[in-house]
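# step 3/5: fold
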Amino acid sequence: MQHLDIIIIGAGISGIDAACHFSMHCPKKTYTIFEGRDNIGGTWDLFKYPGIRSDSDMHTFSYSFKPWTYNKTISDADTILQYLEETVTEYKIKDKIRFNHYMTEIAWSSKENKWTVTGTNKKTNQVVKATCSFLMLCTGYYDYENGYTPEFKGLENFKGRFVHPQKWTDDIDYENKEVVVIGSGATAVTLVPTMAEKTKHITMLQRSPTYILSRPLHDGFAKWMHRLLPNKMAHFFARWKNILLGMYVYWISRRKPDAVKKFVKGQIKKVLGKDYDVETHFNPKYNPWDERLCVVPDSDLLHAIKDGKCAVVTDHIDTFTSDGILLKSGKELKADLIVSATGLVIKMAGGMKIEVDGVVQDISKLVNYKGLMLQDIPNLGVIVGYTNASWTLKADLVCAYICRLLNYMDEKGFQQCVPKLDNENIEVQPVIDFSSGYIQRALDKMPKQGDKFPWKLHQNYIKDMVNLRYGKIDDGYLEFG
């Protein structure tokens, strides 16, 4: 059985980030990446639906150490994959990745100070086992096999095609068809304007409105910086401009929600005109950032509505019919194709079984430590990005911190580190304060947070940067051995 210093599970944006950091800052460490699929990229390789793109600006979604030099600031999946391929090549990571290795169990032994990782080679169906001194979980936060689809009444009666975006295939024909997209989240607002270019007509059917915020497809400030400065320096300034802008939008949304509501609706009215019923279709009942804001590049969704290529209907589904959907209001939406953009299914740690010294761990009972480890779980790093900013901002900080931690342990001769909550008087809370359906459905499966540092998640890049880059490693909460 092969033993490595580090095993990374997952070759998506987080796993590649971790591998690059280990190559740069822990060059003597041996590591490999186990990836369950046959390609890198995670989300960006999995989803194939029309228009799939980032909903964060790419200067914060890309890596701090690898400048984003492409033209679009809100980027399509193909370009993101190209960027990741370049990163893998530049940092010589490809030969470290074992594709089609789907890992199902991890087990820690305090006696041996090592993790045993078990899974299956999906090409050969053979059992795979390896051991490591430190383990990184870069598995994302959702189930790759299935998205969330509610139990729709009468769905079996529908004669057209019904699909969840996570299961999109190349044979799905929507050209000159009547299409209904159920949902109004990030996936729906991406699908609708893209598909509208080919459909006969497309309708976005929502139970309740979502905040829609337009951002430029091309970042003028970043372009200006890249004309004046070398790529790395230009990337640094463009990144920090967008970090501060994002933090300001979140801050002002929490403190002056009515002002932000007015601004967002004003932006929409400017495109759709005074006769459009914005109050019905774009006036959410919740405050900004109680759920993620949906970003649309250059108001593409709004322009598609204005041009008559698509429509928004705010209503509840009564039942599916043979020809479409009957709504509670009595209106019927005809459809050849219905797309259920109804969300994701949360799956923590890739659904793997986790054991520590023979005891199976329920991570929903554990408290997070600094947003990167779990209470009482030794030598385990976990990457979960921000909910109110780009995922990669947090991933970068976590990877840099883990490198500091490993180098500190080597310097002191430690083989084990574990966050301990012993005698700590904290109030345990849900790990995320979000009203989004996919979060609320999974709160009982997710780790918890405390009400004070280092057990509390700040969701604040600058606070995390100060704590993780410059804070003491031996902070009194990590137990070394």
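# step 4/5: annotate
Residues 74 and 108 are 41 Å apart (CA to CA).
# step 5/5: archive (pending)
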